[in-house]
From TrEMBL:
Annotated Gene3D superfamilies: D-Amino Acid Oxidase, subunit A, domain 2, FAD/NAD(P)-binding domain
Coiled-coil boundaries: none
InterPro entries membership: FAD-dep_OxRdtase (IPR006076), FAD/NAD-bd_sf (IPR036188)
PANTHER family linked to this entry: GLYCINE OXIDASE, SARCOSINE DEHYDROGENASE-RELATED
GO molecular function: oxidoreductase activity
Keywords, ordered alphabetically: Oxidoreductase
Record's protein name: Glycine/D-amino acid oxidase
GO CC, alphabetical: cytoplasm
Species annotation: Jiangella alkaliphila
FAD dependent oxidoreductase domain: residues covered: 4-316
Phylogenetic placement of the source organism: Bacteria, Bacillati, Actinomycetota, Actinomycetes, Jiangellales
Length: 335
């Protein structure tokens, strides 16, 4: 791959690739149809966790997520990350089981961690290393970091196709504002990656997976950790606001009010449905496309969780020519 590259998609994954590649010395142009982080990134619950996940083709990649965000915090001071830990209960039948980085806690410990829970469960799973990010804030900080290392950023510039030369090699992209030349193109455009791949003759098996995010008014300190139950994923994002990943606004509001003391006046402020990019087998698709020299893919769920790790590893593959073992199970040729 050439160090002269265009990254298509300024969500958190594309921004991370652009930052890490520019930091490694590549000549980078980051281009997006809107503003950085304005798409599906903005509608993410943004849970960052490595605990309990060790299996599958991307298990080791997922297990690195927390350490990679701590690294990124050191590189980009002021990164908006909150390490609150996560507390889960009632999500499975029977007694809970603790995975790596987790522990089983009793009702008294739950009451200490979440003092406003009305009826603490007998048992819960506590993952003290988990956290969450402001996904748009992290994306913007990554873009700032990419710019500081010389990257050009072109927002509000829709990419319409991948360009190939007479020999079939990538030589840039077509945009609504005209062509952009580059020897390497990274498609990190979420669900749009499928159509852009098709423009280069490549089938990328990724489609939309709807995800709903609710925002609620809330008293300060109502929720202390990241709470995961059968009704919602819930966390406090400001002194007067909560966000929840769930399915129904009415059921979620009722569950919040019944789960926490002092939540009687919680009200729904807004809801947002986002189309998460979901590969056909739910495993990230990351790596070069063998049949189209110069084309590289980076599309996945959970994108927020994996962005710090994937950005660094992709940059190493692009700039240094390394074949990263953590990405070995994520290649397109598995389909």
């Amino acid at each position: 791959m050439s160090g002269d590259l265009v990254v298509v998609g300024a969500g958190i994954v594309g921004a991370s690739v652009a930052y890490h590649a520019a930091r490694a010395g590549a000549v980078v142009t980051l281009v997006d149809a809107a503003r950085p982080g304005a798409g599906v990134t903005a509608g993410s619950f943004a849970w960052i966790g490595s605990s309990g996940v060790r299996t599958g083709p991307a298990g080791a990649l997922r297990a690195s997520a927390v350490d990679e965000y701590h690294r990124l915090e050191a590189e980009l001071p002021g990164l908006p990350v909150t390490w609150s830990g996560s507390l889960s209960w009632g999500t499975t039948d029977g007694a809970p089981a603790a995975g790596p980085g987790q522990e089983i806690v009793d009702a008294a410990t739950v009451a200490t961690l979440e003092p406003n829970v009305a009826q603490p469960p007998e048992w819960a799973v506590w993952a003290p290393g988990d956290g969450a990010v402001d996904p748009v804030g992290v994306t913007e900080r990554l873009v700032e970091g990419a710019r500081a290392h010389g990257a050009q950023v072109r927002p509000d510039t829709p990419v319409t196709a991948v360009r190939r030369d007479a020999a079939g090699r990538v030589d840039g992209v077509e945009t609504a504002a005209g062509p952009l030349s580059a020897a390497t193109v990274v498609l990190a455009a979420g669900v749009a990656t499928a159509a852009l791949g098709a423009s280069a003759g490549v089938r990328v098996p990724v489609g939309p997976s709807p995800a709903t995010l609710f925002r609620f008014s809330a008293p300060a300190g109502l929720v202390r950790t990241l709470v995961n139950t059968q009704d919602f994923d819930l966390r406090q994002i400001a002194a007067d606001q909560l966000i929840a990943a769930a399915d129904s606004p009415e059921r979620t509001l009722a569950a919040v009010r019944s789960t926490f003391r002092g939540a009687a006046d919680v009200e729904l402020l807004s809801s947002r449905v986002s189309a998460r990019p979901m590969p056909a087998d739910s495993v990230p698709i990351v790596g070069p496309v063998a049949d189209v020299p110069g084309l590289y893919l980076a599309v996945m769920h959970p994108a927020i969780t994996l962005a710090a790790a994937v950005g660094r590893l992709v940059a190493r593959e692009l700039v240094d020519g390394a074949a990263e073992p953590l990405l070995a199970g994520c290649r397109l040729d598995r389909f």
